[in-house]
User: What shape does this take?
Amino acid sequence: MTNNKSAESELTDHMCGLGSWRPKWSQIFASTKVFMIILCGLAVSQGAAFAYMIASITTLEKRYAFGSTITGIILIADNLADLVFSPIFGYLANRVHRPRMIAICHVIVAFGCYLAALPYFIYGPGVHLLSGSNKEIVGRLMKYNKSTEFCDQNNFDNNMCGESGGSETAILAVILLCIASVFYGIGYVAFYIIAIPFMDDSVRKKNSPLYLSVIPTATGIFLGGVFIRKFLPGPRLLTSLVTIVEVFAIMGMLSALFLGCPQSQFAGTHHNSRMVDKEDKSFAIGLMTAFMTCFAFIPYPLVYGAVADASCLIWESKCGHRGNCWAYDTYKFRRNLHGLTLGMYFIGSVFDVIVIFLSKRIKNLYNDEIEDQGLETQDNHMKLKTDVNKQLANSYD
Assistant: This one.
């Protein structure tokens, strides 16, 4: 009876439906391909929410009068969620209903999107940006052509402290944006810690790179999946290719450092851990994400925010309170930004070389024997359900 209940529970976990309502006609959607399509939709929605936050962050700085350091705090709030929830989700991933947990976490992300829009409904449009003090700043910026004129702080009046409106930092708006960012982070954790390993467990290893590479938009990821599926390169070759790409990235950053090219952003990549047991995969990825969050994702917005603030020439000021930056020293900004990025790339490449020498310890990189048995069981769910029902009927008789 215990085995029958366990088999029936496993079967139910892979059936499509809403709660306990799981009709037979809906089981046509209980397939890996449909789940991949839904996962792609979730990835697009997450990327849109994050990209919109990044694109509008400078506007939010001006509207709610906060500097780049506070911007960094808002951007690392989702990483704090990664740090807290990554080990927890990694531990629970194989002990709960994973698709249901993914859905709940993305409902939280949707709530975070509405929460991020709430400051507009509280404070309204930024009419204070058209006030006299800000017109004065804009007028000065348009009048002088040389950046050296910006340094004369005596040109600006500070006699409008009694006027309505103002440019003090809107603390409530910052708090709401931070909470929304935390909710975003919960969705990111669910996607990378639960959804990606679940997809990887649902297909054969030789096919998983092709499935997972559909999610990002970069063509190189898709070609990488085809390359791995066709040629099955070893661990050392794979890590060597990553290091070669890092070297070319460093060369590109060198050119950007001297030519003044804008910083480029590319879609991230996700490498599934193959050096741990299958049941420990989600926990290993969660632990790795926690370490990356602690030593990379949390510090970098603060560091780059400090770099941006250090390059500011003119700060908005109202009644002794500093607001956002109105003008930057572009040469200093470019030099500090790309110089810091180049140094981080170089340090990362050193660790990539270490990984190359340690990669020979990875065994059975493309071993499908165990997973094929699991996939064969999933492909015969309906047959399993019939057998379970017969056994239950015989036990009652």
Remarks:
- The chain is about 70% helix and 5% strand.
